[in-house]
Amino acid sequence: MMRFYEIIKKKRDGHALSAEEIDFFVRGSTDGSIPDYQQSALLMAIFFRGMDERETADLTMAMVKSGTQIDIGLPKAVDKHSTGGVADTTTLIVAPIVAACGVPVAKMTGRGLGHTGGTVDKLESITGFSTALTMEQYKEQVTKIGLAIISASSSIAPADKVLYALRDVTATIESIPLIASSIMSKKLAAGATHIVLDVKFGRGAFMADLPDALYLAQTMINIGNRLGRPTVALLTNMDAPLGNRIGNALEIREALDILANQGGSPDLREVSLALAREMILHYFPEMSVTTAYATAKEALDSGRALAKFTEMVEAQGGDLSVALPQARYRETLYAQREGFVRAIDPLLLGGLSVEIGAGRHKKGDKIDYAAGFELVVRVGDKVASDAPILIVHASIPLTAHFMERLRSAFLLGDAPPSVTDWHIERLS
Ligand code: URA
Known about the structure:
The protein is an alpha/beta fold. 45% of the residues lie in helices and 15% in strands. The protein contains 16 helices and 13 strands.
């Protein structure tokens, strides 16, 4: 019989844990036989001592085995995952693009977390849309139309739920092996055979610094490769909101605009095409990078991606002929001076959008699907004094104080910002 005390001590003293010891920990966390205080002590030891590649892969696999493992019944299941951003609607654009290129997409996804939005919440702003399909309906839809997006089942990696909740209250969230195994365990349990990661860095990201984001990306790639699930990562900038709209129905509108080639943020479009290219390359490895990009772009430009999105919405009970939820109040924020937009703070805007109902303060809170912000300017734009910079959509009247806090998300200056290019770096 293993003594958990010895496992904590071993990690505390900086040694690598064996696969058996890691399994014992994950089983004991899931069934509650190891008390919270001992689990927390080990998490803190991992936080300080780290884990090597082999341990991190073993931890991931132990968490995968703690719950249901989905087999979608396809020879290849390509999935994408984003580490979370603001105005980041890539899934709603990438999934229909690649599905229109013949890459089946069976996607389980989540709700908003903190200042970041979630795909499930966004899709639920479409009248009638259901993200709660049965496993049979899910598989049948993927077979029939090549695309389904549903809410992640609670039986996926239950060990992660226990450990995440403990990490959240013991200051052990920010450990790269723990984050990487948490994310990858959910992807693997949901049946992904090939994975594309969108790892954000910058002010609105989970990992603000580029070196940390690089390390996180590399750690997840190593896990995937060790477990036989090829993984690539794009590192993308989250110093400013990716899209022009923040809020659930507003983000659906922007995804539809991009799919219809009728505007939307060029950065959101570019990151979506880059992610689509990587998913296509996983599925058709004989294709060149240039052809994969051109294939994705053609699906978008021709409207085939939009048609695929519409097909998915209909298959999941949604009705796009019903107008998306509209807010009762709209208020415009104007620039107080002329100049260049040097920065737009995604963290602040994400947080303020939650305050007006676009996200949840606590589990179970009701979302106001119509609430959010529409950016009228992007970083690098030149604005005149009194020009509109943002429009608020809200169900409640807005105070002057709220508008002032919104204003502080914008930094205007005399000189243009030095870098306005979208930064995308590929790692594999
Ligand atoms: N997202 C996850 O799923 N897990 C983490 O640990 C951090 C972010």
